[in-house]
Amino acid sequence: MVRKRAAMAAAGAVLTLTAVTTGAATAAPAVPTAPAPVAAVAAEEPQPLPNFVGRNRFRVYSTVSAETALKIHDLSGEHRKVLWPPNWKVCTQSPKAGTKLRGGTLELGVVKTNEKCPARQS
After folding, report:
1. In Å, what is the CA distance from 2 to each residue of 21, 24, 52, 96?
2. Distance between CA 96 and CA 113 in Å, rounded?
3. Residue 74 contacts by C-beta under 8 Å, 6 or more apart in sequence?
4. Backbone angles phi, psi at 58, to 5 degrees
5. Which N-terminal residues, if any, form the signal peptide (predicted)?
6. pLDDT, tens digit, 9 for 90 and up, residues 4-14
């Protein structure tokens, strides 16, 4: 019996295709197949940034590409280290939602999830 397994990338593209033979020792060896074409994810037009304001910081990590640098700072004025993503919510973002960002830097102002975002300053 021959079963096929495919390794999947985060974007859903098939990276490799391997055949695994199980059963009797007399089974014919699997014939190597050409790997499925991989979509050119990097060549695609970047998706517009969603509005992260009010959302959990973990959502940011699961949405933006690895090419995008994140600059995150605590808006409370206490200069706390922003470590555990689920414990923080986004209050400000730059560039704004709808911007198509490939690489570059996404700046986020955050506070603890149980705190209120500070009032915007003019």
Report:
1. 5, 11, 46, 51
2. 21
3. 80, 81, 82, 109, 110, 111
4. -60, -35
5. 1-27
6. 444 444 444 44
pLDDT, one tens digit per residue, over 36-76 is: 555 544 456 677 888 989 888 778 887 887 888 889 999 99
The owner of tokens 């197949």 is 33
Domain, as residue range, for 75: 57-112
pTM greater than 0.70 (yes/no): no
β-strand 69-74 against 14-21: which pairing, if any? unpaired
In a domain, 95, yes or no: yes
Residue 96 lies in a domain: yes
One domain, residues 96 and 74: yes
**CA–CA dist 7, 109 (Å, integer):** 36
What is residue 58's DSSP assignment?
Answer: H
